[in-house]
Design a protein that fits this description.
With 297 residues, the protein is an all-alpha fold. The protein is built from 15 helices and no strands. 75% of the residues lie in helices and 0% in strands. The chain is globular and about 70 Å long.
């Protein structure tokens, strides 16, 4: 008996050791990004990126945060878009997933096929742009950063498959008690589907937080640019200076004071830091939601 306990203890030790090493391997690239954002240009060129720089400099962050009001406004826009867009995505995709999970709904097979076709085919960029700007008037307003990404066929099928696994008896009991469809969806199905809802929240929030494409296509106003678009513009300006430095001594002098590679790393830290805090709160639901939602039905 004692020998068996000793073997279990040794086995547990190696499991923990492997988990710690694996966590360090996953964390190491992010630590290198933080270290790289604090390095000077010369050290990056001569020695490459490191976790612990020889000479710490905050020049990259000073460049990014030099216009504090602009960055703060970008954060406000992105935070608003992420919160409102994620909420709308859950409601719209959740309701569609609920309808497609009801086997007695007329035209259910056609609607499933219709949603599936949107995953396989699209009209292209030009028709999409014309619809957004001419017909939906999504140009230079906050809804242009939210509405085009609200509906996702993959989210709909993920939620539908999870809802299909909920026992039919629960639905019938609620109907006998006089509950309407929206009340059943809101009070019962959403609460029972916490894992898959948390999974969709994570994916939708990441999508909205990292999006710069809608800002590029539908937003001309500088005061309405999301954070990712602002940082992309800054990076484009630095790359322009790098290109012009070969032809202009003035551009070369300006570039000497700009830590180009460090700015890229600082961008990762500035944009990743806030959204990465979301994951610990919903990670316990993540794997359960995506596996069950993908397999059931």
């Amino acid at each position: 008996m004692g020998h068996m306990k000793e073997k279990m203890t040794v086995g547990r030790f190696f499991v923990y050791l492997f988990a710690i090493l694996f966590a360090f391997v996953c964390l190491y690239p992010f630590l290198m990004v933080i270290g790289g954002s604090l390095m000077t240009n010369s050290e990056v060129v001569n020695e490459g990126f490191k976790v612990f720089p020889k000479e710490v400099t905050f020049a990259s962050y000073k460049l990014l945060l030099g216009n504090g009001n602009l960055i703060l406004n970008g954060y406000k826009i992105t935070l608003f878009v992420t919160v409102v867009g994620t909420f709308c995505s859950i409601i719209v995709n959740g309701m569609m997933g609920y309808v497609l999970s009801r086997k007695r709904v007329a035209g259910r097979k056609f609607m499933n096929l219709y949603v599936l076709l949107t995953m396989l085919f699209n009209g292209g960029m030009v028709p999409w742009y014309l619809i957004c700007t001419r017909y939906l008037h999504l140009k230079n307003n906050i809804f242009a950063l939210i509405l085009p990404s609200v509906v996702s066929a993959w989210y709909i099928f993920l939620i539908r498959n999870y809802f299909s696994g909920i026992p039919e008896e629960i639905y019938e009991a609620a109907k006998i008690d006089g509950a309407g469809e929206f009340m059943i969806f809101r009070k019962i199905y959403l609460k029972l589907a916490t894992p898959v809802i948390a999974t969709v929240v994570l994916f939708a929030a990441l999508g909205y937080w990292n999006d710069w494409w809608l800002g590029l296509m539908l937003m001309d106003r500088s005061d309405m640019q999301p954070l990712q678009m602002l940082l992309r513009t800054m990076m484009s300006n630095i790359q322009f200076l790098q290109t012009m430095s070969e032809q202009s001594s003035e551009a070369q002098a300006m570039l000497a004071s700009v830590p180009g590679d460090g700015v890229k790393m600082a961008m990762v830290v500035v944009t990743t830091g806030p959204i990465i805090l979301l994951y610990p709160f919903i990670q316990k639901y993540f794997m359960k939601g995506i596996m069950v939602g993908a397999v059931k039905g």
